[in-house]
What we know:
Layout (H helix, E strand, L loop, with lengths): L2 H18 L3 E4 L3 E4 L1 H11 L10 E10 L5 E9 L5 E7 L13 H9 L3 E5 L11 H16 L5 E11 L1 H11 L23 E5 L5 H10 L3 H10 L5 H4 L2 H6 L9 E6 L7 H13 L4 E6 L12 H19 L3
Parallel strand pairs: 5-6, 5-7, 7-8, 8-9, 9-10
Antiparallel strand pairs: 1-2, 3-4, 4-6
Amino acid sequence: xxxxxxxxxxxxxxxxxxxxxxxxxxxxxxxxxxxxxxxxxxxxxxxxxxxxxxxxxxxxxxxxxxxxxxxxxxxxxxxxxxxxxxxxxxxxxxxxxxxxxxxxxxxxxxxxxxxxxxxxxxxxxxxxxxxxxxxxxxxxxxxxxxxxxxxxxxxxxxxxxxxxxxxxxxxxxxxxxxxxxxxxxxxxxxxxxxxxxxxxxxxxxxxxxxxxxxxxxxxxxxxxxxxxxxxxxxxxxxxxxxxxxxxxxxxxxxxxxxxxxxxxxxxxxxxxxxxxxxxxxxxxxxxxxxxxxxxxxxxxxxxxxxxxxxxxxxxxxxxxxxxxxxxxx
Length: 329
């Protein structure tokens, strides 16, 4: 390689570095050293996820999309302060398919973000606005939308994960198992048409892994409100079978598998622990990886209250995510 070739290559590198905003350091008055490689390596070294970290965060909100009922679905962004880019998590709220919004898991979202995760919680369509699969379509769109937007909030979406609570856990399970389902992918994302909805992992608290079993439990205890939540969402009623994570496994459908964390309360009388145990066994039998933990003395929404079990749940979620982020893609 002659001196002209070396000089030309150096000149091109210099132009690239300047365009990217990297520092260019003059040496001996006439020569330039391209500093991008060292900057990138240094940045990567600073941003390895440490679940014990305590970072300051900023919280902001943006519009995501307007649903069929005319409501603007918002996204709440919990962004750590620091060099980044930070691993990215999409939070899917619970509410028995009929209530709650992006604020539902704020304490958990703040805790995760302060450990060095970009956490984005989104609104989803409620059953009173549109039945299944509307909220799953919102979540699928949310995955793709967040992948396209994460970098603008100093996030790294290359291993995007989910955090889902209760009915949001059911949605998370459906996204994990059916990332390419045309029904769920029905909302186009014009800004990033080639981005898919695959996720690297899902961590869940009290997921509704079998909505039919939850309905039967509500029926047994004469919980009219919970029964109505189901009949409002599953229209026609047969969709309670088609969209049932447990039944999807029982039917041996061809599915995608990603590592799961499922946390359940021993005193949960909404989604019984044995429902979770059955799902975990079936998911493992299908070849999936699941970390399953029952929290003694805890009810369905124990993480809504501060205390040792809530602290334990937060640390468990962080540790699970740290393991997934260390795994090679």
